[in-house]
Amino acid sequence: MATTSESSSAAERLLQQHTQDHHVTVEDAPDEDLAPKKSSTPVNYEDAFPSLGANGNGQKGKAKEPAGPSIWMAKVPTAANTPNGTSRASTPASGTGPAVAGPPASGPKNVNIPGRHVESVVIESQYIMPRNQLKRPIPDLVKDINRKSRAVLSATFLSSGHLKVEAVGPQDKAQQAIRELVNVIGTKSTVKVPIPRSARAHLIGKGGATIKSIQEKSGARIQLPKTDDNQADDDEDALVDVIVEGNAVTAAVARDAIRKIAGDHSASANLKLKSIPAEIYPFIAGPNNSSLSALEAEHGVQVRVPSHEPWAHPFPQALNGERPFFAPTNSDNFISLAGERAAVTAARAAIEKRAQELQNQLLWEQNTVPFDRHQFVIGERGIPTEEFFAETNCVILFPSDPTVDLVTVIGLKDDLARGSEKAAELAMNLNTSSYDVSRDHKHAQGGAPVYMRDIARYLRQRKEIERLEKLHQVHISTPITDAMGLPWGLFGREGKNILKAQKEVKSIVGGHPPSRFATVSVDPFFHAYLRTDIKPQVQSDYGVHIVVPEAAESQLPVVLVFEGQSGAEDTYQIPQAAPTAQELSAFKQGLADARKHILDLISKQEEIKVKTLEVPTKFHEKLRKFIKKEQDATTRKAGEIPVRVSVRGTTITMRGTASAVESLAEKAEAFVAQEKEDEKERGFTMKFDFPQKHANHLIGKSGSHINELREKFDVDIQVQNGEVELKGPKAKAERAKAHILSLAKTWADETTHTLKIEPKYHRELIGASGAQITRLQDRYKVHINFPRSARPAKDDEPAADAASEVAKPQRQQGPDEVVIRGPKKGADEARDEIFSLYSYLKEHSNAAVVSVQQKQLPSLIGAGGSAMDELRQKTGAKIDIPNDRNTPADALVEIQIKGTKAQVAEAKKLIEEKKAVFDDTITTTVDIDKKWHKILIGPGGSTLRDIITKAGGPDDRRLQNRYIQFPKQDADGNAIKVEGRKDVVDKIIATIESMVSERASQVSETIDVPIEKHRSMIGRGGDAKRKLESEFSVSIDIPRQGSGQTGVKITGKPDDVSKAKEHILSSFKEEPSETVQVPRKYHSAIANNGQFFRRLRNDFKVTVDHAGHSTPGKSKPASSRVSNGATPLITDDPEEVADAHSWNIVDNASTEEGDIPWVLKGAAENVERAKEAISKALEQAQKPSATGYLILADPSTYRYVIGQGGSKVNAIRKQSGCQIQVPKDQASDEAIEIVGTREGCEKAKDLILEAVREGVASRNRD
């Protein structure tokens, strides 16, 4: 027996093990349709299979025990099986090698008949179930399989007791027939397959894909040994045992796939060199990786040397000039080698030899450099480590402690001085400045250091310091020591940049006085709650930004900074202007409200409590997932703060509010207790049939679905040969079974649609990050697969190929094919919707590009995007505007237009028209004295709009605002800016100059017009005044009503003013008047609520005033609702409602004494006519009269009193001889007033009630 050398590789040791006690088994399977071939040497089973009955010397007797249990003996090769005559499948389990063909027999060659393939295996008797455990005899089982299989299966017991199984037919059907028989009659066995440790990862594959594929294709179960954390990662020569569980066929197929993967990867090696100090890495790689490239070329391996990290190393302990000792790195950043094993070994030796030489040659030197300047030697503000090494052949180390200033330079003796000089040059060639941000706020509440600390934390979190550093190419240091802020330091290569940065810092500090800040002391437990839940709410509701301390500074208070409502926007800019008094008041109120809100929320929380649980380590992962689910934001109550959970050893610590901790701890204890109970049932196994055609669905892509089910139900799930095996607690297994069977039922209704869709539309159908397809899949419960391009080969692809040898070739999905799979109804609906989207995209896939200048974009977009939104809405096209603000103003940018052909054409036309207008746009200024600006603008901008529209400008006020811009009142200068098309601008300027010239030559005159004529001059809504101004080309200024002034100012050209003056004086001169004395007690009766005055004005052109005397008050009855009792409800009977009313009549007896003058103004003849009318009215008023007040129950019946166009009420007035006033607001319970004789009032009341009854009756008939 061969011995295994300790220096041999895993592959060599594995080969030696396979060759030990290796028995070759060969068997001919002649084609029954061909003539029997003659052989000079008879073949018997014991000669062909020595392991069945003969020993290693060819003598009969008990065979020597193999190294591992042999599951199946041989698969008989045939000419149709494999071209070279070797067996396609392996034979025994571990301890035996693959079957090898014997020498070819003499005689005629076997003929390969298409469709007739022979598969044969010999199964040892110990791997066959006893007869009393079989459901039926083996011959009957063979007949059952033959009835449903396209292959012909036969089974024959040999003299040794072993069973020979043979199947003839198509290859896949023959193999399937053998597997079905072996599944029924075979016993379960366990096989150990030794593989190199380095092949373990390849066997697993990405995400476990390879090992899952082997299990699915073979039907066997594979268990990998757990990783030994104590074993060195680079000990690749160690062998580990892979456990294979299955029957004779499944275990052998899985074993062969595992061996193939191990063989493919055992020749290569991947090593990590953990003994090399990180300080030596640059010296091994050489300047610009020159030594590394030479090493790779010499040995033909890949070598990765990590980049040097100056801040990641502890300082070596040695004095200056002495040779330091560099310890191996304690991080995971090691030198790694990959390639052929022998080449990797040689390269490793070379690197270790070079490392030892460097240990004996390198020296170090330490120099003092201020800590703040370290960053300017190496890094973003200095030079790259590679460049420093290339220039100096030295490496440099910096301390991580800010209180240490020592810098260490490591190199060869002749290079140390150059390295130190270079480090000093980079560190000290800087300009610096110190700025005390609290200089102007010495009396800040809490003290200047607190203010410096808070503003530094705020500006750091807002990334404003970072912005300043990038903008000015400087570094700004904002130190905080012992929870107090210190003056800021500014560092830069150029002094002018520091001055610019310091100026902007000063502006920012000026815009953020201490009154803009407030602090709140909060227990660190609530910090996460403030950050995630409260911060957005406070920002939105109070305009206050919250700075929550990070974990490293949890002792600091929470800082509140008032930003206003704009602070929640992404475009918020840090203010740099000093706040106004009004803003300071807003700061105070906003901060006070926000602080109160936070303290109220915190005060409502319960006391903080800590509780610990002792949980075995093996349950930690499951408990972690359980706690995460219990504290998910979607499940916990609003405002509830999640409990903080930490782990140390087996102790679980929970810290939070008392009730939350108690609740979570109780649930966690119950969960762990249940897990402990479940652990006792982990050995429970359940099997049930599952349709093989749905196995891939159950497993999912790369095992994703089956892993999800395992996680969900906490059971192990295996799928093989139409059977599902569940292993775990019984109750959980039952739930998993029910769920899996329901899935099978759902998939039984599954259908597949293949849609032909042009590839150019796939991206839009899929949507951003797959959002569109995800939505369809979730809505219709289907799977939608779009074609993908071929992916580059991965290292583990040979293993996957090996595991897939027994898989059927799948149809390649075409580049224009979209496959929908799922329940028929959902698949049909998803297909229809995708086709609908496809049709829409085809119709709207037209596109066009318009190139415009970058400076034109603002005018195209409009204020807040209004112009572009209007364009999109008008055309229906999708218009994309480039948003790169760094593009030069004169550069051309492309506007993308998409949509239907008509939409694209219209949008392109409109944009090109706007572009043409923009290209023809000019900007001109005209100097006009400010005294004319108000006149040019006109009331509400009316004059300005007229100027623009008459010049050919737009009617849209938003666009008009860009045409003419006046300087502000407090601004210097008189220049008016005019912008637009050249022809329009020229006309506008000409109009402005003409108006100003005309105004300059105008004169103004003031004439006296009686106050009572002012209203006539103005007219309704100012119509009369505008008519006069238009007719005479003048402007007229009439005094405000009630001012008592009579002067009317006329402005315009001298001739126009003269004409207007003459017209006004002749038209509105004071007319002759005559006074009539009317007894005060009859005034109200004659006036009749003003109707008599309107009659005089309309019929006789005579106006009436009372020369300043107060008019007598109108007498009111004590109560209008005194007769007939209460008014019925409108919900009563309609006929009753028609008669229901309230009536009250009172005598008109005024107690007023004396007379009131009625001043009549108008033409003499008209005044005489008016006097006659007054005389008659007075005579009528002196007759005895009364006033009746009539209230109807239903306000809706008042319309029947008025009638169409007032016809009914006018008729009642004539018949009764009374004055009747119907109130406008009938719903307010006002009465109809009837004035006349008592008899007339009664008659009018009766006529009104009759009109109501007729109206109600007519309504009921309708």
TrEMBL record:
Q: Which GO terms describe its cellular component?
A: cytoplasm
Residue ranges, annotated region (Disordered): 1-113, 788-825, 1105-1133
- Bias regions of kind Polar residues — which residues? 79-90, 1117-1126
Asked whether the keyword Cell membrane is assigned, the reply is no
What name has this protein been given in UniProt?
Answer: K Homology domain-containing protein
* UniProt KW keywords: Repeat, RNA-binding
> Where does the source fall among the domains of life?
Eukaryota
- Per UniProt, the ranges with Low complexity bias are 1-12, 91-108, 800-809
Which species expresses this protein natively?
Neoarthrinium moseri
> GO molecular function terms here?
mRNA binding
K Homology domain span: 187-263, 267-356, 682-745, 749-839, 844-916, 920-997, 1001-1069, 1070-1179, 1185-1253
A Pfam family of the record is KH_11
The record's InterPro entries line, in alphabetical order, gives: KH_dom, KH_dom_type_1, KH_dom_type_1_sf, SCP160-like_KH
